[in-house]
């Protein structure tokens, strides 16, 4: 994507395109847009990092709370964002059987009960093909 194009996007278009860079937090994209112009896409990415890093702990926990559980209810109900669906699919979570889903539901619930937000990880990195050969366990 061309950075000139990004810098010239109006508010609605920018939030449409980048509103889910931080899962279900279009407000962050709206705030980042105010920091235009960006020198390139890496610069744009750095602004998202800087914004989320600068949030107080309560804000960062709020961001985590917006994440759907891995292989959770939203997936079953078809309510994942396109990005989450792609990520969970890359990790094989969209094709689990009922027993495997149940097996994951328990630790998900325990984690949420203990910390107050869902267990979250970059599911797409769980795709074996995305892990460099030398870092694979088996
Ligand atoms: N809970 C959690 O990690 N959710 C997710 N992670 C990810 O990469 N996509 C998700 O939906």
Descriptive overview:
- This protein is an all-alpha fold and about 140 residues long.
- The protein has 2 domains: about 5-65, UraD-like (Orthogonal Bundle), CATH 1.10.3330.10; about 70-135, Oxo-4-hydroxy-4-carboxy-5-ureidoimidazoline decarboxylase (UraD-like, Orthogonal Bundle), CATH 1.10.3330.10.
- It is built from 8 helices and no strands.
- Helix 2 (about 10-20) crosses helix 3 (about 25-35).
- 1-[(4S)-2,5-dioxoimidazolidin-4-yl]urea binds near residues 69, 119, 120 and 121.
- Catalyzes the stereoselective decarboxylation of 2-oxo-4-hydroxy-4-carboxy-5-ureidoimidazoline (OHCU) to (S)-allantoin.
- Its EC number is 4.1.1.97.
- One of its GO terms (cellular component) is peroxisome.
Overview in brief:
The protein is an all-alpha fold and 138 residues long.
Overall structural domain count:
2
Distance between the termini: 37 Å
Distinct small molecules bound, one entry per kind: 1-[(4S)-2,5-dioxoimidazolidin-4-yl]urea
Which percent bin holds the helix content? Answer: 55-70%
Radius of gyration equals: 17 Å
| CATH topology type of the largest domain | UraD-like
**Annotated CATH architecture of the largest domain:** Orthogonal Bundle
Helical segment tally? 8
Structural class: mainly alpha
User: Can you say what the CATH homologous superfamily of the largest domain is?
Assistant: Oxo-4-hydroxy-4-carboxy-5-ureidoimidazoline decarboxylase
Number of strands: 0
What characteristic shape results from the CA principal axes? globular
Specify the CATH class of the largest domain. Mainly Alpha
